[in-house]
Amino acid sequence: MNQADVSRLVPRLRIRVNPKPRRLRNPDGQEGRLNKMRQTVLGLIKYKRIELNSNTADEARGYAERLISDAILLGDKDRSMREMAEHWLEEKQMVHKLFKVLVPRFENSTASYTKIY
């Protein structure tokens, strides 16, 4: 039987994302790690530039890249994309900024959306 190639179903990112999450220590465990990632992605969208250590920055970069690329691909009319944006960006203004400011800016971009220096 012919199997579908899953990599064609999910849009490719322009960066290499490690399939396993990094072991970032957090006293609240896995839930605390994800909350920290949500705050980091929110800060990145809000301030456009943040300073982090390299492990946290590399981990958050994958989440931010996926969020922006899915927003470009699906748009703000898609219900699942809207729910994902509201989950990752807790502030309503940042959801608006994602769809109205960042998507038009990056929709014709050929490079990655985030950079780590």
From TrEMBL:
A Gene Ontology BP annotation from the UniProt entry: translation
**InterPro entries for this protein:** Ribosomal_bL17, Ribosomal_bL17_sf
Gene3D superfamilies from the entry? Ribosomal protein L17 (3.90.1030.10)
Quote one Gene Ontology molecular function term: structural constituent of ribosome
Name the UniProt key words of this record, in alphabetical order.
Ribonucleoprotein, Ribosomal protein
A GO cellular component term found in this entry reads: mitochondrial large ribosomal subunit
List the Pfam families.
Ribosomal_L17 (PF01196)
Q: Which family does it belong to?
A: Belongs to the bacterial ribosomal protein bL17 family.
Q: What is this protein called?
A: Large ribosomal subunit protein bL17m
